[in-house]
């Protein structure tokens, strides 16, 4: 069994609780297989995308989640990164992280690796993963 956990970035730090300010980023890891990423900007705009697999492919259920407009989410996330961290992120780099809208197999063996790449590109501080993979299950 893989890691289950929800991690929030706001006010310049990571936590396992809800975000404390806007802008914020929430990364919800599901069994190390995929992650749901929600981001909100100061003006309350934001979006959602997935890393590694979209739930509809991971669960082989078309109703598990709506398809993601990957280019639009890559643009939106790059904007969030500029606002939240001051880091210039190329939307093409963000797009390379997102789960394939066609369900193509992911590059990384576990989603934590993709999350780490996303964090580094965004200029965020490293996320400290729990040593007990069930510590943040919820």
**How do the strands of the widest beta sheet line up side by side?**
2-1-3-4-5
Q: Averaging pLDDT over every residue, what do you get?
A: 93
Query: Order of SSEs, N→C?
Result: EEEEEHHHH
Tally of alpha and pi helices: 4
Keywords:
alpha+beta; single chain; 21% strand; 138 residues; 4 helices; five-stranded antiparallel β-sheet
Task: Give a topology summary.
Layout: E1 5-10, E2 13-15, E3 24-30, E4 34-40, E5 46-51, H1 55-58, H2 70-85, H3 91-97, H4 111-122
Antiparallel strand pairs: 1-2, 1-3, 3-4, 4-5
Helix pairs in contact: 2-3
Question: Would you kindly provide a written description of the structure presented here, covering whatever features stand out?
Answer:
The protein has 138 residues and is an alpha+beta fold. 28% of the residues lie in helices and 21% in strands. It has helices spanning 55-58, 70-85, 91-97, 111-122; strands at residues 5-10, 13-15, 24-30, 34-40, 46-51. It has a five-stranded antiparallel β-sheet with strand order 2-1-3-4-5. A hairpin with a 5-residue loop joins strand 4 and strand 5 (46-51).
Short description:
Helix content is 28%, strand content 21%. It is of the alpha+beta class and 138 residues long.
């Amino acid at each position: 069994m893989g890691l289950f956990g929800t991690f929030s970035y706001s006010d310049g730090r990571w936590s396992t609780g809800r975000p404390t300010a806007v802008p914020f980023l929430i990364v919800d890891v599901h069994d190390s297989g995929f992650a749901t990423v929600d981001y909100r900007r100061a003006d309350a705009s934001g979006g959602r995308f997935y890393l590694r697999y979209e739930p509809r492919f991971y669960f082989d259920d078309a109703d598990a989640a709506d398809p993601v407009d990957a280019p639009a989410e890559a643009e939106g996330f790059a904007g969030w990164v500029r606002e939240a961290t001051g880091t210039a992120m190329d939307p093409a780099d963000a797009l390379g992280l997102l789960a394939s809208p066609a369900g193509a197999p992911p590059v990384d063996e576990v989603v934590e690796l993709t999350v780490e790449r996303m964090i580094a590109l965004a200029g965020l501080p490293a996320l400290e993963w729990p040593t007990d993979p069930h510590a943040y299950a919820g």
